[in-house]
Design brief:
about 25% strand; binds zinc ion; disordered C terminus
């Protein structure tokens, strides 16, 4: 019997990055904190397989907008809409425009819900639902990217991304919130205007302004990482909307 020296491992050339605007993330947090119980919503996913400025291999999955279907909410679960009510959701959102409705169905692969104050670990019901989504998409000719997102009121999240084109599923890939604020002038001010008083050891607990900043998982252009899981991705996303500078 051949015996492997190490467990099965997959290394992929594809490096997924999920992005969302600060506005959408704030809206999600607002919804999750205001909703009396668990709440469910859908978002759109736009895939960029050759993002500008990014080294080869990076694929950006930009999640945007929030669509809230009519739903019955509980403390520990929320009823996922059946095919018909989901169809109604996209039809309503498209305002009767059939072409737009089809576009929303194709892009609306982000299935999201809250766990209120509870851990964001997928429940058995969540796993079952996710398996059904897999099965449904696998049968289609037009296979589109799917996301399962679970968040709670403490801004914790679980994000599972399945790209049927690549044939891979990732759990908690780098998730970048696109902050529209340009903080680089503050970095410059900290570097050039702030110095530590001689003999003041109390400041030692703060990150050193001389070396600390470059180690933060923040890319230039105001993009910051939202979570502890995100390694620095090292390039600026240009797929996101950006307010005009005053
Ligand atoms: Zn759940």
């Amino acid at each position: 019997m051949p015996t492997p020296k190490a467990p099965f491992n997959v290394r992929s050339d594809v490096r997924p990055v999920v992005t969302m605007s600060q506005k959408n993330w704030d809206e999600i947090m607002y919804l999750v904190r205001k909703a009396p119980k668990e709440v469910l919503w859908y978002s759109l996913i736009d895939v960029d397989r050759s993002p500008a400025n990014a080294p080869p291999g990076f694929v950006v999955y930009h999640v945007s907008e929030i669509f809230i279907p009519k739903q019955r909410c509980g403390n520990k679960e929320v009823e996922t809409p059946d095919g018909q009510s989901l169809n109604d959701l996209w039809q309503d959102a498209a305002g009767g425009d059939q072409k737009k409705a089809v576009d929303l169905v194709n892009r609306g692969g982000c299935w999201a819900h809250s766990h209120v104050e509870m851990p964001v670990t997928p429940s058995d019901q969540d796993k079952k639902q996710w398996a059904e989504i897999h099965e449904g998409v696998s049968k289609k000719n037009n296979k589109t990217v799917q996301i399962m997102m679970i968040v709670n009121r403490n801004e914790e999240y679980t994000l599972v991304l399945w790209d049927p084109i690549v044939g891979l599923e990732w759990e908690n890939p780098p998730f970048v919130i696109d902050s529209p604020w340009d903080m680089s002038w503050i970095d410059t001010a900290i570097k050039t205007k702030l110095s530590i008083m001689k003999g003041d050891s109390s400041s030692l607990v703060t990150p050193s302004t001389a070396t600390g900043l470059s180690n933060l998982p923040v890319t230039s252009g105001g993009h910051s990482s939202s979570g502890g899981n995100s390694e620095p991705v090292g390039f600026v996303f240009t797929t996101l909307e950006r307010p005009a500078r005053a």
